[in-house]
């Protein structure tokens, strides 16, 4: 249980185009999902926290107009990188926090990541 | 500022050998500490989670320890296998009562060789 999927697993796009990445919790509901970015040999950096039915909360330094987040249901959050540039090339990882009483650790389950390459 | 430091940065060991990875943290208010395994090009997978009152937890060949007084944790891998080659990330959760926030270490890159 507690499986999170991401689609696509990798994407290559031209500079200036927009790319949408989906994050789905497959066997549980998640009111909260998180989006991270990871550069080579670095750790995960939180970009934003996505709550179902409300606006996302962005970390300092993350442009909300560039990284659009939509959390339309309890199992799906999307991240759209608008007008992508080569410096946006990175590994994007989402995580989801299950909604259940037994989740006393406030555990998050991570997706497999999406490799974005902007040419 | 909340910080998580891991050592060593990288490690190479022979298959079958044991190893221990270290994690020191300054995170407040402490909620729990997690160890994740991240294969190259994949998302992190949870190995162990420990709260303040837990000082050791095992998951197969992985054993994590936590000393909340000294704010140190270790991950011990027994009888390493080639498939253990990955990055191991220490993550500490702080809970303010309304929200939890994770602080990630930079990871230890482990390579297991023949």
In DSSP terms (H or I, runs of 4 or more residues), the helix count of chain B works out at 0
Helix content of chain A: under 10%
Dominant shape of chain B: globular
| Backbone CA Rg of chain A | 14 Å
Rounded to an integer in angstroms, the radius of gyration calculated over CA atoms of chain B is 14 Å
User: Structural class, judged by helices and strands of chain B?
Assistant: mainly beta
Q: Give average pLDDT of chain A, whole number.
A: 91
Q: Give the distance, in angstroms, between the N- and C-terminal Cα atoms of chain A.
A: 37 Å
- Secondary-structure element order of chain B, N to C: EEEEEEEEEEE
Number of helices of chain A: 0
Q: Which stretches of chain A are poorly predicted, pLDDT < 50 over at least 5 residues?
A: none
Structural class of chain A: mainly beta
- Would you count the extended β strands of chain B for me? 11
The biggest sheet of chain A amounts to: 7 strands, mixed
* SSE arrangement of chain A, N to C: EEEEEEEEEEE
Main sheet characteristics of chain B: 6 strands, mixed
Fraction in beta strands of chain B: over 45%
Q: For the residues shown, what is the average pLDDT of chain B?
A: 94
Helical coverage of chain B, percent range:
under 10%
Fraction of residues in β-strands of chain A: over 45%
The largest interface is: A-B, 21 and 22 residues
What does this structure look like?
The complex is a heterodimer of chains A (119) and B (114). In chain A, strands 2, 4, 5, 6, 9, 10 and 11 form a seven-stranded mixed β-sheet that branches. A four-stranded antiparallel β-sheet of chain A has the order 1-3-8-7, with no helix packed on it. Helix content of chain A is 0%, strand content 50%. Chain A is built from no helices and eleven strands. Chain A is mainly β and 119 residues long. In chain B, the strands form two sheets. In chain B, strands 2, 4, 5, 9, 10 and 11 form a six-stranded mixed β-sheet that branches. In chain B, strand 4 (30-38) and strand 5 (45-51) form a beta hairpin. The interface between A and B is medium-sized, with 21 and 22 residues.
């Amino acid at each position: 249980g507690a499986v999170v999927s991401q689609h696509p697993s990798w994407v290559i796009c031209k500079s200036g185009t927009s790319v949408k990445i989906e994050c789905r919790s497959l066997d549980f509901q998640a009111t909260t999902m998180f989006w991270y970015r990871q550069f080579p040999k670095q750790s995960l950096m939180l970009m934003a926290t996505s709550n179902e039915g409300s606006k996302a909360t962005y970390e300092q330094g993350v442009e909300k107009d560039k990284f659009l987040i939509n959390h339309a249901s309890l199992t799906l959050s999307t991240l759209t990188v608008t007008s992508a540039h080569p410096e946006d090339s990175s590994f994007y990882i989402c995580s989801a926090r299950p909604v259940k009483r037994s989740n006393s650790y406030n555990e998050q389950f991570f997706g497999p990541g999406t490799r974005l390459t902007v040419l | 500022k909340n910080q998580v430091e891991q050592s060593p940065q990288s490690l190479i060991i022979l298959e079958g050998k044991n190893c221990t990875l270290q994690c020191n943290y300054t995170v407040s208010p402490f909620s729990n500490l997690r160890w994740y395994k991240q294969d190259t090009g994949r998302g992190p997978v949870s190995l162990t989670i420990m709260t303040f009152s837990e000082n050791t937890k095992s998951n197969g060949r992985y054993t994590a320890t936590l000393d909340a007084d000294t704010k140190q944790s270790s991950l011990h891998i027994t009888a390493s296998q080639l498939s253990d080659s990955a990055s191991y990330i220490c993550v500490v959760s702080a809970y303010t009562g309304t929200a939890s926030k994770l602080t990630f270490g930079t990871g230890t890159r482990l390579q297991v060789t023949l």
